């Protein structure tokens, strides 16, 4: 019996496994088959581990047949190549780590493994998670499954493309300034960036440590809830991990949105927002009203400042995090160094791509004595004000809604020569990271055949409320069920 993997959600596949309609081996073979057939066009994977996946699938089938399976047992998934995987290459999209095989699993990987998910491989990404288009990968760009001439978004572009194209039903991503939500929006899938500290960062290669957060990317909010149940929770090995009572994120999915107060920030609908994206978002908001929620105009007055503040803070943190790649401890080492200086300089010059080098330069400059107060400290003060704007807004609303991105997926190559144009892509996502809030992107419609993402932003640790608001929308719409046809594109 064969099962069409490409259009089913994780939750639907899990019931097919429990009912015996299919097996994990069958699902895993189907996923590997689709990757084999389609990933030449997409380039969504950096590494695929056929043998290990089949072994894990067999083990999952044994667990399922003995009745010991959980909601993720036997489900093929992939990890963004930023998560360390024991014995499996972890490159972070960089030449620097092209030969790196970690001796341990990231906490997220360990938790999904023990929940029984089958690891198929590692997905393509912008180098060290720096980018909004997946074009900064050492392994080449990844294509958007809806239109192969366009970007899938970034930095978790490979995860988003692989889920959208039905190669797998779920993947992990990380979001420092939008890297789960923006590719989810561009590829028409559902992605959740949890509150800072909810998901352990241990073994997740650091970009900007005060902003980085891992989260699920899947077809639906329900699937994200199932994944978050496995991923979230305190980790003694990550000192920034939040100590909270575990929650079951599936419990509240059916809660009504009746009476939910939705804040609509006027700054998210101003200049720069594509007209047809605005129309899709307005229609989605009307749908919420029809379900009994109320809409309230709010103001997040410092939205525009999130770009300069983020693009000082993130590079500053990156410049210190990336100092460990010195050609000595691990990572790329240049051939025949003349002396120590040459070893450092050439190893880093050869190992890091242009965007990473640009960020290291900016970050080192912003942190240097004499400039620290003018740039880094100032940016931190602005960050505080941005967080305060959310706190004030949340005094009168329960969640905030707006577009995830100013436009739809853009053409490959169209912004690569202009870093500022690329950074403007992040206008609606960055401030959420600066404030440490949870947010998601869910499919809300199409503009010229390309998916549009609706962003929902919640209060700290109110992931459950976001997920239920998204699930309720998905009970009334089928945007999240639309699938691109990669086979038919040349
Ligand atoms: N586009 C942003 C950047 O380049 C965000 C990346 C991310 O969230 N990892 O830094």
> What portion of the residues fall into strands of 2 or more residues?
5-15%
Number of strands: 11
Backbone structural class: alpha/beta
Q: What is the residue-averaged pLDDT?
A: 96
Structure write-up:
- With 490 residues, the chain is an alpha/beta fold.
- It has 15 helices and eleven strands.
- It has helices spanning 10-19, 24-42, 50-65, 107-114, 157-164, 181-187, 221-231, 275-290, 306-321, 340-351, 354-367, 373-393, 419-424, 430-435, 463-476, and strands spanning 45-48, 76-80, 118-123, 170-174, 190-193, 214-218, 261-265, 294-298, 399-403, 439-447, 450-457.
- Strands 1-3-2-4-6-5-10-11-9-7-8 form an eleven-stranded mixed sheet, with helices on both faces.
- Strand 7, helix 8 and strand 8 form a beta-alpha-beta unit.
- The structure holds glutamine.
Quickly describe the structure.
This protein has helices at 10-19, 24-42, 50-65, 107-114, 157-164, 181-187, 221-231, 275-290, 306-321, 340-351, 354-367, 373-393, 419-424, 430-435, 463-476, and strands at residues 45-48, 76-80, 118-123, 170-174, 190-193, 214-218, 261-265, 294-298, 399-403, 439-447, 450-457.
What key phrases describe this protein's structure?
single chain; 490 residues; alpha/beta; eleven-stranded mixed sheet; 11 strands
Describe how the helices and strands are arranged.
Blueprint: H1 10-19, H2 24-42, E1 45-48, H3 50-65, E2 76-80, H4 107-114, E3 118-123, H5 157-164, E4 170-174, H6 181-187, E5 190-193, E6 214-218, H7 221-231, E7 261-265, H8 275-290, E8 294-298, H9 306-321, H10 340-351, H11 354-367, H12 373-393, E9 399-403, H13 419-424, H14 430-435, E10 439-447, E11 450-457, H15 463-476
Helix pairs in contact: 2-3, 5-6, 7-15, 9-11, 9-12
Bound molecules: glutamine (GLN).
């Amino acid at each position: 019996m064969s099962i069409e993997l490409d259009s089913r959600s994780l939750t639907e596949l899990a019931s097919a496994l429990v009912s015996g309609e299919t097996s994990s081996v069958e699902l895993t073979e189907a996923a590997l088959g689709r990757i084999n057939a389609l990933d030449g066009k997409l380039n969504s994977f950096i590494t695929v581990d056929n043998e290990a996946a089949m072994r894990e699938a067999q083990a999952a089938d044994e667990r399922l047949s003995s009745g010991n399976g959980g909601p993720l047992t036997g489900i093929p998934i992939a990890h963004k190549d930023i998560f360390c995987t024991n014995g499996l290459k972890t490159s972070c999209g960089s030449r620097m780590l092209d030969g790196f095989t970690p001796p341990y699993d990231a906490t997220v990987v360990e938790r999904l493994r023990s929940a029984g998910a089958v690891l198929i491989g590692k997905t393509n990404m912008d180098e060290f998670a720096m980018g909004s288009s997946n074009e900064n990968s050492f392994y080449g760009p990844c294509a958007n499954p809806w239109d192969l001439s366009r970007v899938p978004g970034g930095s978790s572009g490979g995860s988003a493309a692989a889920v959208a194209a039905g190669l797998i039903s779920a993947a992990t991503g990380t979001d420092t300034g939008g890297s789960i939500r923006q590719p989810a929006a561009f590829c028409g899938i559902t992605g959740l960036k949890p509150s800072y500290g909810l998901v352990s960062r241990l073994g997740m290669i650091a970009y900007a440590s005060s902003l980085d957060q891992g989260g699920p990317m899947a077809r639906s909010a329900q699937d994200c809830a199932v994944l978050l149940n496995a991923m979230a929770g305190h980790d003694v090995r990550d000192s920034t991990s939040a100590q909270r009572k575990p929650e079951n994120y599936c419990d509240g999915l059916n809660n009504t949105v009746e009476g939910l107060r939705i804040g609509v920030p006027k700054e998210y609908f101003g200049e720069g927002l594509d007209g047809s994206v605005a129309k899709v978002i307005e229609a989605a908001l009307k749908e919420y009203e029809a379900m009994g929620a109320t809409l309230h105009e709010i103001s997040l007055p410092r939205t525009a400042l999130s770009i300069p503040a983020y693009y000082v803070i993130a590079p500053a943190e990156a410049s210190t995090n990336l100092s460990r790649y010195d050609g000595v401890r691990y990572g790329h080492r240049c051939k025949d160094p003349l002396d120590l200086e040459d070893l450092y300089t050439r190893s880093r010059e050869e190992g890091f791509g242009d965007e990473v080098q640009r960020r290291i330069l900016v970050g080192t400059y912003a942190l240097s004595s004499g400039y620290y107060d003018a740039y880094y400290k100032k940016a931190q003060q602005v960050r505080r004000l941005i967080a305060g704007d959310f706190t004030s807004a949340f005094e009168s609303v329960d969640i905030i809604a707006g577009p995830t991105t100013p436009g739809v997926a853009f053409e490959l190559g169209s912004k690569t020569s202009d870093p500022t144009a690329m950074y403007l892509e992040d206008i609606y996502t960055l401030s959420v990271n600066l404030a440490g809030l949870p947010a998601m992107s869910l499919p809300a419609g199409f503009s010229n055949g390309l998916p549009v993402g609706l962003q929902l932003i919640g209060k700290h640790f109110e992931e459950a409320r976001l997920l239920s608001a998204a699930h309720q929308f998905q009970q009334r719409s089928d945007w999240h069920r639309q699938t691109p046809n990669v086979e038919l594109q040349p």
